[in-house]
Amino acid sequence: MAKASWDLIRILRQTATRLESPDIEYKWSHFAHCNCGHLAQVKTGLSPTEIQSRAMEREGDWGEQARQHPTTWNRPMDHPRPDYGDRIALDEGAWEPENIGLCPATSLPFDLVLDELYSLGLDATDVANLERLSDPRVRRHLGTNTIRFAHHRRENVIAYMKGWAELLEAELLEAELVPDSQEEMMEPLHLAAE
User: What pTM did the predictor assign?
Assistant: First the structure.
């Protein structure tokens, strides 16, 4: 599970509150209006259009793109990367990434969006779990670990984010790490317009 922080808890709760508004578009099949897309909007302040355009530069859903993020390249993976030795990248046959994921409009990669999420304490597994609402600890906390819990239903996403925030808060309070002030927990973020 994600590294607990008051900032992550605040953003999870703000995202859940945002999704409670019927005026906010939710569409699981759209990069910027899905579970991770809404969290990214709250954290980055980027518009849905910008998030969508950055995400479409590479193949894969949120989970796959999170696993392809450069910070995961040196971590153990389900399948090992080929070992090309210590040859420099320009050496013939050396592995080089084919798609650097740059947005043609801004030249900013989608990885910068993921960097923002990772700065909260998330990792690739957390992003994939949020996409599918599948973290076993959060599901047990919600009492939904043995029942069908559709990952594409707005009310389930809201419950999942609130439950995840509760677990992280309990972890911090157990470690006796309290926020500096109530304002720190309630501080609003600048949100991009829908």
Answer: 0.74
